[in-house]
Amino acid sequence: MSVYTEVGRDQLVAFLNDYAVGDLLSYEGISDGIENTNYFVTTEQGQFVLTLFEHHQFGELAYFLDVMTFFYQHDIPSAHPAADRQGHYLKKLCGRPAALVMRLSGRGVDTVPTTAQCHAIGDVLARMHIVGQQFKSRRPSERGPKWRQQTADNLLPLMDADSAALLRNELTFQAGYAELDLPSGVTHSDLFRDNALFESDELKGIIDFYYACDEYLLYDLAVVVNDWCVDDDGSLNQARYQAVMSTYMQQRPLSEEEQANWNLVLRAAALRFWLSRLQDKLFPREGELTQIKDPDAFLTILQQHRNQLFSFEGY
């Protein structure tokens, strides 16, 4: 979440007139995250998050809003879009597709997660994967193997020799990723600590479903583990790791094929975020409030997984 498109007060007032939310009281840009423009909006009727989509076309976005609505309707604590007076979730603002989403209570986790928070995130992710099997719409991943290869090709000429060699080696190791026979379905694919809102150890909701797609369910779990369960040196913290995994697997045990490919999928998830952060660093976009996250954090995680090649039980 960042601010790339500035919204004037008069523009926002006109936009909100199509909603039954009362008069605008205040609004402010949100600097967290990196992809879309976001504002906190307070009206007479409540608090919302306004998102202007910087990359997706209008026709693409119904999927994401449907995912959010689906999970909300199936008792997953999640942000859900507000409909305008005509029942539409999506409109245009400042030339961008825009959605008004109910703001949840709680805050993202900006410190080391507690084991209770890790239990909560493992629980909700398993429930999302189970109920998500009923979701009918399909959308391929935008950040899958093809994207990873194309992004690497763009970045390699700008990288130092050691990093470039590591990247080429990793792409070779992951060459068979797309052909794995693993359970798949709708995934969040970006369930970082800043996308889960807590009050103390109580999970209040999941936000930012704009990378949702059809992927291996194991990949979604790997994204969570790589953010919630690692220490500063990129190694897995066993207490937090076991909290996520044990709670998740109580509801959805991993298949033998998933266990056999756990290291590969952890590395694929680490590679995806290393590349996207490196791309943002080397090819920054202009914005009023922007945040570029450190790509080296995920390089460190990837290196740890590369050095930790023992069996699933070893994790």
Describe this structure in words.
It is built from 10 helices and 9 strands. The protein is globular. By secondary structure, it is an alpha+beta fold. The chain folds into 2 domains: 9-102, Phosphorylase Kinase, domain 1 (2-Layer Sandwich); 136-194 and 208-237 and 253-314, Aminoglycoside phosphotransferase (APH), C-terminal lobe (Aminoglycoside 3'-phosphotransferase, Chain: A, domain 2, Alpha-Beta Complex), CATH 3.90.1200. The protein has a 5-stranded antiparallel beta sheet with strand order 1-2-3-5-4, with helices on one face. It has helices at 9-16, 62-73, 115-131, 145-155, 161-173, 217-228, 238-251, 256-260, 262-282, 296-307; strands at residues 24-29, 37-43, 46-52, 91-93, 96-102, 184-187, 196-199, 202-206, 213-216. Helix 3 (115-131) packs parallel to helix 7 (238-251) and helix 4 packs across helix 9 (262-282).
Which key features would you list for this structure?
single chain; 315 residues; alpha+beta; Phosphorylase Kinase, domain 1; Aminoglycoside 3'-phosphotransferase, Chain: A, domain 2; 2 domains; five-stranded antiparallel β-sheet; two-stranded antiparallel ribbon; 10 helices; 9 strands; 40% helix; 15% strand; globular
